[in-house]
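hey so u asked for the seq, here:
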Amino acid sequence: MEERIHSLRVKDVQCDELWGYVGMKEKTKAKKGSDDATIGDAWTFVAIERYSKLVLAWHLGRRTERDTVAFTEKLAAATQGSFQVTTDGFAAYRDAVVLSLGAQGVDFAQLVKLYAANPESETRYSPAECIGCKKVPVFGSPDPKQISTSHVETHNLSMRMSMRRLTRLTNAFSKKWEKLYAMLALYFAHYNFCRVHQTLRVTPAIEAGISDHIWEIKELLVATA
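ran it, structure tokens below
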């Protein structure tokens, strides 16, 4: 992906983070007093182009400022020129996007979701109820009508459906950080170049103009050798 997805002209990019864990959840890790950086919560940052559905960049790390900057630097390498970018309300994006993409003249906004407090009757696995969203322009002149993270959030669901290790209640979670990273790399490459998107009826790579055919699994494996 790094060889083929770079300096692309894009129009609208959406970014989000997907939670997972390696070995054990962060709360369990804290209870055991472990300081092993290769276990615990693992966040996958994803940037998707709204129209081609191409995954432009991804990053596996913690939900920290350092990893957010590492992710936005990858997005900067994958793109060129001005475009609109929308993220969720994670505060680290405000500096990271401007630092990595400000020179390209991007129009940056955040979609901040507002949640209601969980009633006592709900279980520990029940998601908080979203009661609304707030569109917050951060940099440049983003079009309010285009401020959305719907497409990347739909893609997050596809990720969870495609990889059992990312489902919330599972015994198939990753046991090693390297294995999760390798699985994500394979998934994103397959998604971009091999998997026909149901809406587009071609692969995202074909729609984005970086491939002229649907890749077979064999071709994908040869390209990574």
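Residues 8-174 form a domain with the Nucleotidyltransferase; domain 5 fold (CATH 3.30.420). The chain has seven helices and eight strands.
lmk if thats what u needed
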